[in-house]
Hints:
Blueprint: H1 12-55, E1 63-72, E2 75-83, H2 92-103, E3 114-122, E4 125-129, E5 136-139, E6 142-146, H3 155-176, H4 185-196, H5 200-207, H6 210-217
Parallel strand pairs: 2-3
Antiparallel strand pairs: 1-2, 3-4, 4-5, 5-6
Helix pairs in contact: 3-4, 3-6, 4-5
Amino acid sequence: MECSNATKSPSKTTLIKWLITGAAIIVVLVMIIAKPVRMANSRKQYVAEAENILYNYGIEDADISIAYAYKYSDYNVYYLNVDSPEIEELSDSDIYEIVKSIDSINIYVKNRDYLVLSYVSSGGNSYSIDVLNDNILEQNGADIYNNALQDKTSMAFKVEVYQWIEDRYEYYDSKDGKYTGDKYTDTIFSEAASHFGVSESKIKEIWSDYDVALEAWG
């Protein structure tokens, strides 16, 4: 009887199993490698977008970075930090537009597994958009600008005026220690016109508008 040193060839079924296992390993490796690559590419795009936004407002001196912050559910959360001493020199309306634009940066990535939160700062102050009202700009957590009030024909502006006038009536009632009726009406209307930058006739129109009153009381 002859002895053979030849190794027995694997069966077709075994070869298929090896191929499937090998393919699965390759897919997993690709996914592991692709995640940081996707984020690396996105990081550059986020920084470039933020630079463009600032450049549109004449700001070239800025420190912009993006870094991992924490894990939230199945997502990695990153902070896009934007800091420039020139931001605080702009008007509140311009700062509002900058912060809102940076918040709105959204780089499309298929099967994205991360979230990006933005933080804008200048001169030691942080600026953000109110999470409950995207018309409000906050500085260190305090409201400093309401974009809705810039349209002086808007209901938001009229309600702001109405409520301000009510507060002034209460102030004078408290000052005199009694209900003062219309004693200070002319003074209050004059103050309101100066405060909001409109005519006294506009103030009177707003104060007598029933729909505005309902909205203010609402």
